[in-house]
Amino acid sequence: MSAPLIDKYRKMATFDWRKLKAAVEGEEHVRLKAEVVAKMKSEPIFHRDYRVLSREEHREVVHQRWKKIVEWGLFKDPYSDLENFHALTETLEAYDQGTSARLFLHGNVFGAAVKSMGTERHKELVEKIENNEVCISIRDSAHSHSATHVVVYAQLHVDGKNEGLHGFVIQVRCPRSFQTLPGITIGDMGSKPGCWQGVENGWMEFKNHRAPLSALLNKGCDITPDGKYVTSFKSASEKQSVSLGTLSVGRLGIIAKGMMACTFASTIAIRYSVARRQFGPEKGVENEVPVLEYPLQQYRLFPYLSAAICIRIFQKTFVERFTEYMMRVMMGEKSEELSEFSKEVHALSSGAKPVATWLGVESLGEARKACGGHGFLHMSRLNTLRDDNDPSQTFEGENFMILQQTSNILLGKVRSLGSIDTPMSTMSFLNKNPSKFSSWSSNPVDDVLSAYRYLAYHLLQMTASDANKLKNSGKNAFEVRNEIQVHRAVNLSIAYTEHTMIDWVQKFLEDVEDSTVKNVLQKVLNLFSLFLLERHLATLYITGYASGGKFGEELREKLRLAVAEIKPESMALVDSIAPDDFILHSALGASDGRAYDHIMEEFRKYTNEQPRWVCDLAQFLQKRSQHAKL
């Protein structure tokens, strides 16, 4: 129980962590989050210990917390009060993803679907959604106990013709009795790991259910009273853009889950690594050093610290651009440019969601191992968080599957190489055939981006070439699409996404005014970009970007140097991203650095326990003793 060293590490920093937090998140966002935390601390329903709840207990407490948040009346429409909404959802995501899901899915995903695809005839329902007079869900995540309405995506058949995928909003229960309506059966999916035990994922079956015509979300299309299908969309792609964009909103939220996972992993493990001392240059307990001093521990943890910060910056930028897109959709705009905007949003969200969530889950696994046996304890929260974030890899589409959405859109640009122009300019770098590696410059991020441009361009060419060969050999479109994924389309989607992430963070840094904050964020981006690129080393060599071992060895040398440069800044960087201890809820990761005090405090709650089965054990041992004497 030695004195904590955490403050010693904090004093090593070259910057004020509060200024960095304000620069990355925005002062107003930081203030609003603090207000939400204060509200939560004042309500007993949000206080918790490390006890594991049953499914029924978990769902009831999520319901009670959701009800309390609704009673606070912070906002009605997420898009009219984005600052409050983002502050609340981020705080809840860190506190408990189950509670966050209850709020976010209702207000931002399902509500947005009705608003963006509905018309004046859905105005009354939108008001009820905003006032929380109904509980609305979506078909693939239906709330098994509480949903009164659902948004269903289904094929619309009119006069024997399939008009394609459309959105419908359908009432499934009476909001007073909660009895299901005729022709509808709803059930639960059973127990799940982590916080998702508190979320009512369910299944729904329709049998001869008749819904009114008003169920069709009819922005841009409708069925006339005499049964004719009409549409104002000029093309199928324009019609698809409305639903594609709406579906992307969920993926943007899931990108933030990856960021939050990296935040928790690095906060808990780095703070614990200062408290945990082991070995030293000389024998004796007094000579033991914090495990954070070991370069291998730094190499295992610091890249995820950089990922937490860089993914946050990227996601914040993406949300701003997506909000612009959604406002144009809700205003009823129909244009080829907006259709192109939708495709780009869809391509990037389908790539960024896998990249961010894979990093997040990976970070929690590494953090848990880096904390040794104590990381395995429930009170560390690392294992629970790993369970909580595991499904982020399959939410809104399994990661490998939705990466195909990204590569499909990129492959569609092959014929336009040289003249690609998209609203967010994430694909314009593909217009030029990039050069091979020659030498490193003074800016490693520029060098990394150059390598990514080469990688993405050549992966696009190779994937397109393989697709043409397969097509010419007689393969159908389904076979072609499946056979170009391994080593080709998947890598292409990831390279395009990671290039955009790094590029957007670099552009963000250009506008940071405080020089000390800017310098440390540059160190963070250096590490993040080198860490990601190193994973593509083999493919870079295969595609001819470099030859010989020099490029690879220098890349790894720069990566090790980038890790070392983060070390004196690491504790202040953790402080800049760490949630309040009340939200963090980890004995290992508390901000006071007294991990072992908190561990022992929890241990002592189980002093001299006498479980009921001990009596049975005593009787069993006595019988065995008597049997032995015979």
Automatic annotation (TrEMBL):
UniProt-annotated location(s): Peroxisome
InterPro entries: ACOX_C_alpha1, Acyl-CoA_Oxase/DH_mid-dom_sf, Acyl-CoA_oxidase, Acyl-CoA_oxidase_C, AcylCo_DH-like_C, AcylCoA_DH/oxidase_NM_dom_sf
Cofactor: FAD
Record keyword Lipid metabolism present: yes
Residue ranges occupied by any Acyl-CoA oxidase C-alpha1 domain in the UniProt entry: 245-411
Pathway: Lipid metabolism
Keyword Oxidoreductase in record: yes
Source superkingdom: Eukaryota
Entry keyword set: FAD, Fatty acid metabolism, Flavoprotein, Lipid metabolism, Oxidoreductase, Peroxisome
List of catalytic residues: E396 (proton acceptor)
Main location: other
One annotated GO molecular function: pristanoyl-CoA oxidase activity
Gene Ontology annotations for the cellular component aspect, listed alphabetically: peroxisome
Acyl-CoA oxidase C-terminal domain ranges (all copies): 446-609
Protein name listed in UniProt: Acyl-coenzyme A oxidase
The organism of origin for this protein: Caenorhabditis brenneri (Nematode worm)
